[in-house]
Design a protein that fits this description.
This protein is 34% helix and 10% strand. Helix 4 (127-145) packs antiparallel against helix 5. The protein has one domain (2-201): Transferase(Phosphotransferase), domain 1, CATH 1.10.510. The protein has helices at residues 2-6, 39-50, 58-84, 127-145, 149-166, 179-186, and strands spanning 20-21, 30-32, 86-87, 96-99, 105-110, 115-116, 202-205, 214-217. It is globular and about 45 Å long. The chain is α+β, with helices and mostly antiparallel strands and 258 residues long.
């Protein structure tokens, strides 16, 4: 199955590398994802990452770190989930993160190549992502930095929506490949009654005169709190239209303006 996963990285995923899969000791360039739940370790990681932004506003630095992290997380998880109907081992207690020298999430190291999804329901198939990765990580980021959890959920939803749509152009995609992801984003609440934090994370606005619809996030990522950056191209704040917009901080893993 490891070799089969590598076959996913064509078309819109051609610029990405497959996750690393190892059954031996984790690589020296990795961090156990469970350590993100330890406040001193998470603080140290954000301090290291924040050096590139001259240790600016801690909330904005955490938001930027999460954007790199979520872009890496979703490109692999959604491709495997939607195209192969497999659930990767992405729970924080079983995952290792490949890191750059400054603490940015640059890839994933997995214990195995995933298992067939136990349930193809649009919500249940994403349980590992929602309950065992995003929910505890976002709470840890919010508790450590003081930023609202909604900021991090908005970042997650931005990449979830982006990569779900990108996969519709994958050579292996069926006409309804992204339907489960779209169905999840259309639900205001989850089956257990909880608010769905991934509900409609972006909207498309038709400009006047009509042209390509503008992709706008539901919530600002607060990157403007760092002086060198300004507002992203998808910012929902009306004031950004007349404000300075800096070059996006994302990578090839991130949609333009993220």
């Amino acid at each position: 199955m490891t070799h089969a996963l590598s076959q996913l990285y064509i078309g819109p995923l051609a610029s990405f590398s497959p996750p690393r899969i190892t059954t031996t000791a984790p690589g020296a360039d990795t961090l156990s994802a469970r350590k993100l739940l330890d406040p001193p370790r998470l603080t140290a990681l954000l301090d290291r990452f924040g050096a590139r932004y001259r240790h600016g506003d801690r909330r904005a630095i955490a938001s930027l770190w999460s954007k790199w992290h979520f872009s890496t997380l979703f490109v692999h998880s959604l491709a495997t989930n939607l195209l192969f109907e497999r659930d990767l081992p992405l729970g924080l207690h079983e995952l290792h993160l490949i890191q750059s020298s400054d603490g940015q999430t640059a890839g994933l190291e997995l214990a195995h190549a995933g298992k067939p999804l136990a349930d193809l329901d649009p919500v249940s198939r994403f349980t590992t992502l929602l309950d065992h990765h995003l929910t505890p990580l976002i709470q840890a980021l919010a508790d450590t930095t003081g930023a609202s959890p909604k900021v991090f959920w908005s970042n997650a939803g931005n990449y979830f929506e982006y990569f779900a749509n990108a996969l519709t152009h994958h050579p292996m995609a069926a006409p309804d490949t992204s339907a489960p992801a779209r169905a999840l984003m259309a639900c205001r609440t989850l089956p257990d009654g909880r608010r769905n934090p991934l509900f409609q994370p972006v909207r498309y606005i038709t400009p006047t005169p009509p042209d390509r619809p503008a992709r706008v996030r539901r919530m600002c990522c607060i990157r403007y709190l760092i002086d060198d950056l300004g507002y992203c191209a998808n910012c929902p704040l009306a004031c950004r239209r007349g404000a300075r917009q800096a070059t996006p901080e994302g990578t090839k893993a991130a949609p333009a303006g993220a």
